[in-house]
Design goal:
Layout lengths: L12 E3 L5 E3 L7 E5 L5 E5 L15 E4 L8 E5 L5 E4 L9
Antiparallel strand pairs: 1-2, 3-4, 5-6, 6-7
Length: about 100
């Protein structure tokens, strides 16, 4: 889910003492790794929108094993009809 500042965040669900489902505060655990022309890598938090309170319209995204390596990758729509592909660098546990 996107948090109030537009960052893709993980909100863990749990049951309280009354057995009611609740969400823990969001954790920004998703990073975007960029490589520039000198092959220098930089990592920043993955921000999907920069609007006020995270709002700048709808975003469509899904997790899919795009490269068929056994781990999910993130696909995200772009304004121009294209999509962004975020690689999950973890290794498959089944291999």
């Amino acid at each position: 889910m996107v948090d109030h500042e537009g960052y893709l965040s993980f909100f863990q669900r749990f049951r309280d003492s009354d057995n009611m489902l609740k969400l823990k505060p969001g954790q920004r655990i998703f990073n975007e790794i960029k490589t520039d022309s000198t092959q220098t890598k930089s990592s920043t938090l993955l921000r999907l929108t920069s609007g006020v309170n995270g709002g700048s319209g709808r975003r469509e995204w899904t997790f899919v094993d795009w490269d068929k390596n056994g781990v999910p990758n993130l696909l995200l729509d772009a304004e121009d009809g294209h999509f962004y592909y975020f690689i999950n660098n973890q290794k498959s546990k089944s291999k």
